[in-house]
Amino acid sequence: MSTHQRGVALITTLAVVVVVALLVFGAMFTTQIERANARNDLTTTQAEYIARAGLQKYKTATFQAFNFYLANPALYAGITSRYAQCGNLLAAGLDLDRDGTTDGPGDLRDNGSRTEVLRDVSSVLGQYTVSYHVNGATILLRSVGSTPGAFGGKATVQTVVQGQNAGVFSNALFAGGGATNRYVNGGANIWGSVYIQGDPAQPTQNVVQSNGNFTMKNHYTNAQLASVTGLSSSQLASYLKLEATEQKDLCARLRVAYGRVELGGSSLIGEATAPDGFQGRVQSLNVGTGVNSVTTSGSATVNAQAPTGAFDLSQPINFPVLDADGSGRTYCKSDPTRTWRQCLQSDAESRGMVIDVTGSTVSMLPASVNFSCTPGRLSSVISGTPPTLTFGTSSISCTSPDRTRGFTYSYNSGTKQGTLTIAGILDLRGLNVYMQEDMVVRYQGKSTLLVERKNGVGGNVTVDGNVLPGGGGRTFPDADVLGVLAENDLLFTGDNQNGLPTSQQIAVGLFYAGNQTTVAQGGRVLGNITTGTFCTSSNCNAGQSAQIIQVPGLEYNLPPGFDNLRSDTLATYRVLSYERR
Question: Of 135, 158, 161, which Cα lies nearest the Cα of 145?
Answer without folding.
Answer: 158
